[in-house]
Amino acid sequence: MKCEKSYEHLIHKYLDGDTSSEERKRLEAHLNECPHCLEHVRELKKAIAFVQSASHIEAPANFTNQVMTNLPQKKNTSKTKSKWKRWMKKHPILVAAAVFLLLMSTSVSTLWQNNEQVTFSGSGNVQIDQSSGRVVVPEGEVVEGDLVVRNGELVVEGEVRGNILLVNSEPYFASAGHVSGEIEEVNQVLDWIWYHTKNFFSEVITVLDSDDNK
């Protein structure tokens, strides 16, 4: 529609949070009168929510080179490019979901093909003993936030104020150890995929709900 095209730049500024107070009021007034543009904005918000929710998934270092290598060598015509651009604009959620699935598959492949080195991610003075395969939260130490341990045994002698995710790992708690959040163990590829998919859609719903309440 013509109105969508004329408001396209303003819509992108609005989604980026760069509109002035006057521009925001003008666009919101138009959205109240134009169901087509309103639906377009909602679809873009959903796509942004998908991308934001997948931001914690990291692609391997050689991901770009692998993708470029597998691309067909035939040059795309300007007409083909234009069709793809139009299709992506009409289906932003499908594009975002495809990006999530692609990153998810490369993340899973990298995780299970890498070596068995013991690693952890989180804050606090956490100790790693590669020889014994132990990740230790010392007595008296307080870890603020979530903790992720891979390929080892987590020994909690202190306190973890957050959730714990154990990937190919096992927990051990000393008498003084305490965890305020949930503990989840992921020891199979399907468990890993389900864990991230569940968190992904949970975060998407949260973002969409917050957008609807604005």
Automatic annotation (TrEMBL):
One of its GO terms (biological process) is regulation of translation. The chain crosses the membrane at residues 93-112. It is found in: Membrane. Gene3D superfamilies: Anti-sigma factor, zinc-finger domain. Pfam families: zf-HC2. Residues 5-37 form the Putative zinc-finger domain. It comes from the Bacteria. It is a single-pass membrane protein. InterPro entries: Anti-sigma-K/W_factor, Anti_sigma_zinc_sf, Znf_put. Keywords: Membrane, Transmembrane, Transmembrane helix. The keyword Membrane applies. GO terms for cellular component: membrane. Its main location: membrane. GO terms for molecular function: sigma factor antagonist activity. The keyword Nuclease does not apply. Belongs to the zinc-associated anti-sigma factor (ZAS) superfamily. Anti-sigma-W factor family. This is Anti-sigma-W factor RsiW.
